[in-house]
Amino acid sequence: MRNLRRMVKALEAYSMAVEKRYGLTGPQLWALWELSRSGPMGLKDLAERMYLNPSTVVGVVDRLVEKGLVARDPDPSDRRRVSLDLTPRGSELLKDSPHPAQGQLLHGLQGMSLKEVQDLHASTATLVKVMEAENLDATFFFADG
Amino acid sequence: MRNLRRMVKALEAYSMAVEKRYGLTGPQLWALWELSRSGPMGLKDLAERMYLNPSTVVGVVDRLVEKGLVARDPDPSDRRRVSLDLTPRGSELLKDSPHPAQGQLLHGLQGMSLKEVQDLHASTATLVKVMEAENLDATFFFADG
DNA sequence: GCAAATTGATTCGTGTTCAAACAATGTGAA
DNA sequence: TTCACATTGTTTGAACACGAATCAATTTGC
């Protein structure tokens, strides 16, 4: 647990440093990166790619639009949807900014041997599986009573 | 990264379930638990035990005091400090509430073999070390300009 | 013994996160 | 066709989480 906590904290600290330097928080940078990687998309799609609640992403996108890095365009084929895309300034900024949060973790992994990475992946996968199963149980348990 | 994300998310989901059931969020339960474990202490101490910024813990404690689960007493030996302690209601509630957030992770670990747990611990420790070192570098780098 | 630095708690401003509720739009079945 | 239902994006309200600034109390340095 302490290690998990410290990993999250290290990522947060990294995010703060990036924010100081580039005026972008971790989630903001991450959103830009996803838009750059996978082209224009709707808000729901972006939220799914980021494993976040759509209502959360609205705020992140709001701030990016305010900064002129992302454009919200109407989607002619479905008027419920908005098409999110980088502005020229957005892609420009993305070019010389660091990897988004994950980058640090990736960098961290590069300092480990292949076997270590494989072990880590295997054990976290197991742990996640057990935890998510636990969670289902808890949901049913709490729902019952 | 996905696994890390999923672990955090699983913990969040668990926290939500607990909140629905007991009216306590994860951090609140965690604070109660630390107070129960390590007796009365100042806010800074509690913040350190929770790996959180003191300013964050103020809010958590506020809500616990409001619920009548924690008392803020003056410390006669140092009048800057406040002594945080469980109220009787607080310890009562803690008795039949589930393990705080970590509990789920702990439970998860119990589903793994000793070797798996050891591997997991070793690899996360390595990863944390690399990430924190990275972070120091980044701080200096960004500080330089 | 008193000024200066430090420490502990708090407040403030910004940003992230979720669930719940809502409006607008699209879809499918009676 | 029409009406119930689903989907998409948004708003709202609560709780975290951080750093910076503030304030009182304490410790230090001279």
What is the overall silhouette of chain A? globular
Query: How large, in whole angstroms, is the Cα Rg of chain A?
Result: 18 Å
Described by strand count, sense and barrel closure, the largest sheet of chain A is: 2 strands, antiparallel
Structural class of chain A: mainly alpha
**How many beta-strand elements of chain A?**
2
Low-pLDDT residue intervals, each spanning 5 or more residues of chain A: 135-145
Order of helices and strands of chain A: HHHHEEHHH
Greatest interface by residues involved = A-B, 47 and 47 residues
CATH superfamily of the largest domain in chain A: Winged helix-like DNA-binding domain superfamily/Winged helix DNA-binding domain
Side-by-side strand order of the widest sheet of chain A: 1-2
Oligomer: homodimer
What does this protein structure show overall?
The structure is a homodimer of 145-residue chains. Chain A is mainly alpha-helical and 145 residues long. The first copy, chain A, has two domains: 2-111, Arc Repressor Mutant, subunit A (Orthogonal Bundle); 113-145. The first copy, chain A, is 70% helix and 7% strand. Chain A is built from seven helices and two strands; from the N terminus they run ααααββααα. Chain A has helices spanning 2-22, 26-38, 43-49, 54-66, 88-95, 102-110, 114-144; strands spanning 70-74, 82-86. A two-stranded antiparallel ribbon of chain A has the order 1-2. In chain A, helix 2 (26-38) packs across helix 4 (54-66) and helix 3 (43-49) packs across helix 4. At the A-B interface, helix 1, helix 6 and helix 7 of A face helix 1, helix 6 and helix 7 of B. Chain A binds a DNA duplex (30 and 30 nucleotides) through helix 1, helix 2 and helix 4.
